[in-house]
Amino acid sequence: MGVYIPFIAAVVCIFPLAIFIYRGILRYNSLREIFITILGFVVPCMPLIFFNLTNHWDTVQGIYKTAIYSKNSIYVANSWSIYLKSFWPELWAVTLGVLKILGTGLALAFLVVLSIKGYQKKLPKPLIFLLITFFFNFILLRYYWGDRHVVYFSYLHPFIFIFSAYVFFLSLLIPT
Known about the structure:
Layout: H1 4-12, H2 14-23, H3 30-42, H4 46-54, H5 58-70, H6 80-96, H7 100-120, H8 125-142, H9 157-173
């Protein structure tokens, strides 16, 4: 689990970074917003920082040893085929609490809706930010060298809930 903590922190930072870039980093209020964002990342990590300070940086040493020495001790199949056909449908299904075939169908429905709305240029701006962040997570997870257990990726659950809700919302707008 120790290896997942910095990985999760790295991919979660993409969303605020995308918002700062969009809104303009050099705006008048941006320094205050950057400070609040940094504070929002530091305060929840205080117990972990305190633990590391009092225990000779044990967690950091474990992450370093795992990343350098033991990452090649197990083989993890890391092909696009397995990643797309196995990991994502299972993650989508586990997140929503449905069967894998329903999770796959909902993910495909989201891709269809996304393609149609993107072609029509009617994607809402908040959804674009979520898509940018999700895209970076999607690519980074593909090249992650560790085991991919769906229970470790709870930080992706909001994306899956929002994307699935977007599909249901648009399906309600279809005239019958």
